[in-house]
Amino acid sequence: MKPPRLTFWQGVGWAGFAVVFLIAAAVAIWRGDILKAGLDPQIPFQTYDPPAPPDYASADAWAMRDVRAPTSGPAAIFFLHSTTFDGGADWNGPIGDPKADAYLERVVIPNYAGPFARAGAISLPRYRQASLYTRLTLRDDARDARAFAYGDALAAFEVWLAAHPTGPLVLAGVEQGGELIDRLVRERVAGDAALRSRTVAVYLIDVIVAADNLSPAVPACATATSIGCVVGWSQVGDDNDGAVWRRLRRALVWDDAGRLVDLAGRPALCVNPVSGARSDAAVPARLHHGAANATGLEWGLRPAFIDRAVATQCRLGILRHTELTTESFREVGNWADRRKARQYNLFYSDIEGDVERRLNVWQASITP
Prior knowledge:
- The chain has about 375 residues and is of the alpha/beta class.
- It has seven helices and eleven strands.
- It has a six-stranded mixed β-sheet, with helices on both faces. The protein has a three-stranded mixed β-sheet with strand order 7-11-10, with helices on one face. Strands 8-9 form a two-stranded antiparallel sheet.
- The longest helix is centred in the N-terminal third of the chain and has 30 residues, at about 10-35.
- The radius of gyration is 23 Å and the shape is globular.
- The N and C termini lie far apart (about 105 Å).
- Mean pLDDT is about 90; it is low at about 20-30.
């Protein structure tokens, strides 16, 4: 008995199903590339007209300006936030972009500025940040956009510094913000003896920095009580060796001309945020002071901590750590959000304690 023949319309139906299946499969396989391409400005940076510059004399140019928590300490803290602007038509985000600002206030400030609240008054400038797209490609245009953001960082720093002519200073930045603070320290702080003497510590959070780029005048923090030094690391889970090699291979660092160049096998800086020291020694989880998911938390409120939970060790210049498996420490959000700085802070309480300890040492050092 012969099998029944397909009718014309049945054939069309099966063909259509096959096309839809192939399209769906292609989207699943190349979804990241498709989404990334949608963030590409599609114009050379050299012909790009950037957004209007911020006026740091205006309150609108600051997400926070000398904001204090109750019983905060005497330090003035200059904090540069991580990437919050996705991209699209712009290489660099305009000041006051609603979506970027909402992410900054909901995620970045509570998780990453929060640990510094008890140390003093926090100032957090808005700046024409390089878009998320510039961190997903190594094109020269993207490097230029990232370098362009430094002009705003420097301008904001000068205004902030003029408003704080005396007293202890703390500089901190996360991801893109840490990249900019690294250059700021090298070019503006390291050569100024008076400014160095006021610097309690510098925090470069979740960013790769070339260890041999650090100035001897502002070195890596050798111990938990060192002052005038840099605490910096880039973190990857213990079970993700592939991410380590990808991160090191794609890392860009500043050269002496202010350009972003390949790390090219140079050692990366790793100061363990739990021990507070530049060391390759394994730090057991029992010494971990506390992780927190502070996303959405109102400023001034302290989050709940999970302590004694994360073991750490600097290996190959990367901070390797055990993962937390609780629901609040899982990656959430859309494709772009999952490629930004994490929406929680594994070392919230460790950073909080670190800056307070170094501030106490600094104060003791100037007491007659």
